[in-house]
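Sanity check. The docking grid for S-adenosylmethionine depends on where the pocket ends up, so I'm generating a full predicted complex first rather than guessing from homology. Inputs follow.
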Amino acid sequence: MKIPENLIQKYNIPVPRYTSYPPANYFQENFGSEKYIKAIEQSNHEWPENISLYIHIPFCSKMCHFCGCNTQYTRDKAKMGRYVEAVKKEIKMVKKLLDPNRKVSQVHWGGGTPNTLPIEMIRGIMDLIHENFEFIEKPEIAIECHPAMLDESYTGQLVLAGFNRFSLGIQDFKQEVLDNVNRDAPNVPVKEIISWIRSFENTAVNLDFIYGLPFQNEKSFAETIENAVEISPDRLVTFSYAHVPWIKKAQKILEVRGLPEANEKLTMFESGFKILTENGYTPIGLDHFAKDTDDLSIALKNRNLHRNFQGYCTRETTGQVYAFGSTGISQLESVYAQNEKKPEKYVEIINKNQFTIEKGYHLNIEEKIIRHVINEIMCNEYVSFKETAEKFNTSKKEIKNVLHFDKKMFRSFVEDQLLKIDGEENFQLTGTGRFFIRNIAAQFDPNLQKETKRFSKAL
Ligand SMILES: C[S@@+](CC[C@H](N)C(=O)[O-])C[C@H]1O[C@@H](n2cnc3c(N)ncnc32)[C@H](O)[C@@H]1O
Ligand code: SF4
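Predicted complex below; grid placement will be based on this.
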């Protein structure tokens, strides 16, 4: 699989990633906790009815040089304990405001490295959630784990605490690559870790990989992905390494170690894509892959895939997201709200029984329409103005007005066979169109017409 060179030249330009609409750099500073309280109360009357809980753990016991996550180095258990108690307090504060009839469909622990916490601390939070909330029948309860810090007993206890989806950060199987980014390899083969998880019923495994690191090349990355296919995870992500040394200073060292050229990086992506699609994985968006039989692949076929900051989800597991912990972003139907970034300050504010909202955004109806259209194209590779108009109880004309729709803006995508448009109202991405999904989504974003902000490139 090769992406045509002329299309790369033409479309590999800076565009938003659209993990949210509007993107997080539009969130406003003057959005305080009072607005958040009102937003939670309002969310009780809004769709989706289900609740997603996101728990952020901002700690790692060793720092990878490539890391772009919101985390810090610590091995201090007392500090972790104070943080965990604050998270529990925040959960109780939110619970008081929520409609008790609403059920949890998804819990996601991210970070940092949630499995740096002693198991009792994780269990403490999970027990509190189970005591306070009702769950839907088959909720997804996921945790991001560093595999070098998992042993069989700890992994089993995570399952007993309720986790049924494990996301393991592999990054690369090559020791040389890991050594040069200051990352420990797992102590046992990843296959064995997966067998511990799969020895329990109804558990699933995701693996994360990154391409674009020093000492990676097309051949080495292809071998890594071939190894991954052999292990047969349910889902897999190949992240393009985001190099932002002006924000993450530690990344500068990777320039000295030698970052691969843009062309080499692209060939790594192409090889990974080819291997995965030839081995029974469905591509989801640009960089996610799920076994053809996985719920996500089925949801894509049925055009009911959704997405939040934590990744893709099906209609069953989609909920409004209530986030806990430093930097956590709540994603309610009408509001985004982000918590204080520094863990110490977060603990201090929560201990005064106050929310710690640092930034937020209230969406009006027009922005909700734009968000819906962008999400449809990003998740389901398809959007229909007729269906969108029905959903928002309005006319197709109004949808076009809101989007500042002008068919001319899509002409080059149609000519380059990246997009099919049927009767000015049904948009379907082609196979190659997927690689430029962010560029196509951007055409539906009226903000981009007056854009001045800084984004990463499309590929
Ligand atoms: C919170 S970490 C996963 C859990 C655990 N901390 C670990 O590293 O195994 C989330 C994922 O983000 C990805 N990631 C981190 N920094 C990145 C960067 N600069 N560019 C692209 N992906 C990155 C990695 O693949 C990582 O697995
Ligand atoms: S990649 Fe994971 S383990 Fe490494 S520093 Fe970032 S969050 Fe921590």
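Relevant for the grid: The pocket of iron/sulfur cluster (ligand 2) is lined by residues 60, 63-64, 67, 69, 71, 111-113, 146, 169 (CB under 6 Å).
Also worth noting: Residues 27 and 360 are 5 Å apart (CA to CA).
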